[in-house]
Structures are given as C-alpha cells and as structure tokens.
Write a structure and sequence with these properties.
single chain; mainly alpha; 2 domains; two-stranded antiparallel ribbon; two-stranded antiparallel sheet
Amino acid sequence: MATEHPREHGGVLTERTADALMAVFMFAVGVVIVVSNYQLGAGWAKDGPESGYFPLRIGILICIAAVVVFVQALRDRKLATKTFLTRAKLKPVMLVLLPTVLYVAGIQFVGIYVASAVFIAAFMRTMDKYSWVKTLAISVGLNVLLFWMFEVQFMVPLPKGPLEAYFGY
C-alpha cells in the first residue's frame, strides 16, 4: 500500500521512479532481444520464418510497451508522491537480492550445481535456522538429484565447474 509523502515516511523510492527505472530496464531487454534475434536471422526464408523472426517481433513489442510505461510514469504526477519502497522494506529485499546476484555470478566459477547447493544451504541456515544435518541433506541431495535428472537422464548439459570436471563431467 502506497503512502502519500515518501520523504516523511522513510521512502527511498517513489512509484514514478520505480516505473521509469523498470521501463528503462525492459527497453534494454527488448533491445537485446531485437539485436540478438536480428543476428540469428529474423526474416522470411523460402521454407518459412527464420529462427529469430518471432522473437524479434516480441522484442519490438517489449520496447514499445516500455516506452508507453516510461511516458505514463513521467506524466502521472500522483506517482511522484507515492512511496514504492521504504527503508524498512529495503533490508528484506536486499537480503534476497544480493545473495541471488552472488549465486548467478558464482555459477560462472563453480557451476550451477555447487552454486545452487551453497545458495539453498545459505538460505536454509540464515533465514529459517534449519539444522546443519537437514540443510546439507536437502541442499546437496536436491542438487545430486538435479544433476542425475539433467545430466544423466535428459542429457542436458548445464554450466559445470571444477567439481564436476573432477568426476569427469
């Protein structure tokens, strides 16, 4: 629920700013989609649409929608007075956002399975205070199961790190 005066109630982000920032982000996502699919081939071949044909058009629609949201955010003066995020709500958001960013970055170095096991274990211990035995059983067991399912059964290679290389994967 939005409050009326963000500065008076510890607001750090207004609805207008949040809408505008999200519109800029989504526009950038749309541009990446358009450019990457144009490079794939977004035209019409003699046997039908090329692989980037439909995704490129989705990227264009995302860009158009982002521009509309951005313009609406700038034009709606009521959004400038409504609080989107307060200091009190920022901490829990950061407690999830920062570990998630570290998790995604960690995948590049240790692979998805090890990064996922650490990510799950960290949340189980810090947020829910599970015992070490339960934390290790679930975080490691789940990722062993996922490894078996994706790598062995479905033969879908996911990002792997040094541990999987040690075992020959």
